[in-house]
Amino acid sequence: MRNLTAIFVFLAVLLPLPFVIQSDFWLTWLTLALFYAYLGQAWNLLGGYGGQFSFGHALFFGTGAYCTAIMQIQFGVNAWAGFVLAAIAAGIVGAGTGWLVFRYGLRGSYFALVTLAFAEVFRILANTFAFTGAGVGLLVPLQPGIAQMQFESKAGFFWLLLLLVVAGLLFTWWLQNARFGARLMAVRENEDAARALGVDPFNTKLLAITASGAIAGSAGAVYVQLFLYIDPNIAYGPAMSVEALLVPIIGGLGTIFGPVLGAFALHAIAEVGRLVFGEAPGLNLVLYGLLLVLMVLFLPNGLFGLGKVSFGAGALRRLFKRGVHA
Predict the structure, then answer these.
(1) Spatial CB neighbours of 309, under 8 Å, sequence gap ≥ 6
(2) Which of 224, 227, 264, 307 is most buried as measured by Cβ atoms within 10 A of its Cβ?
(3) CA-CA distance, 146 to 159, in Å (whole number)?
(4) Could you tell me which residues come within 8 angstroms of residue 256 by beta carbon, excluding any fewer than 6 positions away?
(5) Three-state DSSP state, 19
(6) What gap in Å lies between CA 199 and CA 195, rounded to an integer?
(7) From CA 323, how far away is CA 310, in angstroms rounded?
(8) Residue ranges of the chain with pLDDT lower than 50?
């Protein structure tokens, strides 16, 4: 009940911010932080609660983005309907990927590399076909209005993403209290022990990757309306996959608010980096890589585990010994 109360407090605090913040810069910053929090929630479902670390979540994000863009441009489908179709299409891709991977028992680094490979295959395909715009990409027509999910002010996207993030938080809260969540976390801890207790690891992981893919695909649909453009490198490139996994890792894997905390922390660090070093090409990826290493070494439980961390000489000695014996 405490987590449920925290979710509604979070909503109540952020809901009036567009009336308080007059700066377009900060409103855009908050909107993007909420976007990556929502994308991170998709990854957290599979990686945090299911223990299946995906390096290619751009596969699902890009599928959703291209689905809604193609439907709008070529068939005149409404953006809200495109949002639903994007989630369905990405969920189907997630189910197909999971069926191919989990039926052969791939897990750990093998699963991570296979998802990365699938994302790269889709990126190459999107660079090839004319209906995806090939390497040029797709430019979505500007049709301002709520009916086309193209809000005339940045506040509209802020509220939309806030509601999606809250919906993701409520889903995660349900997951922690549902039988499916218990089965998923049992599979995460020990598949063999879970199987001995009557849990079907294959079906459990398949449902998790399908739901995770659908959420990531819906994030792709929102991205298209926000920027009105998508190309293969944005849709299926490694940058989106890196952001999706970094957000929950920084905030705290397998926690309700981990992706939200991680998204705000990650983009605050990125903004500080831009102010200090300027717009150096690839700077974000360098900062993200350094941050990921530090988090894994010193804060494996994310920012929610700050109370358990020690940066003293003892911790550094243990780290050095670990490296020597690796």
Answers:
(1) 298, 299, 315
(2) 224
(3) 12
(4) 3, 6, 7, 169, 172, 173, 176
(5) helix
(6) 5
(7) 18
(8) 309-320, 322-326
